[in-house]
């Protein structure tokens, strides 16, 4: 998937798994992007896959919520 599709996937997973409003999920992904969380994904397309998206969604959500992730839906 493209870099942009990957970011969309991570955003969707945060929205669906953790019950955040879509706008809040977008803000988390944008903030992570601003902190260069996704630089390695931009350079290595093999990191842009569904399994990695689940891991990244969890990591981003946990980082924003004190490393105490809400149980996935």
The geometry reads as globular
* Strand count: 0
What count of structural domains?
1
Question: How much is the average pLDDT?
Answer: 91
Fraction of residues in helix: 55-70%
Number of helices: 4
Low confidence ranges: none
> What is the beta-strand fraction?
under 5%
N-C termini distance: 25 Å
Which structural class do you get from the secondary structure elements?
A: mainly alpha
What Rg, in angstroms, do the CA atoms define? 11 Å
Largest sheet, described in full?
none
Element order: H for helix, E for strand: HHHH
What report would you give on this structure?
The protein has one domain. Helices cover 67% and strands 0% of the residues. It is built from four helices and no strands. The chain has helices at 3-18, 22-34, 39-43, 50-64. α1 (3-18) crosses α2.
Keywords:
single chain, 73 residues, mainly alpha, 4 helices, 67% helix
Topology:
Layout: H1 3-18, H2 22-34, H3 39-43, H4 50-64
Helix pairs in contact: 1-2, 1-4
How do you describe this structure in short?
The protein is an all-alpha fold. It has helices at 3-18, 22-34, 39-43, 50-64. The chain has 4 helices and no strands.
């Amino acid at each position: 998937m493209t870099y942009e599709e990957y970011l969309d996937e991570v955003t969707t997973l945060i929205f669906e798994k953790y019950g955040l409003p879509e706008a809040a999920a977008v803000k988390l992904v944008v903030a992570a992007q601003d902190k260069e969380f996704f630089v390695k994904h931009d350079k290595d397309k093999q990191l842009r896959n569904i399994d990695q998206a689940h891991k990244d969604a969890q990591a981003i959500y946990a980082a924003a919520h004190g490393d105490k992730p809400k149980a996935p839906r």
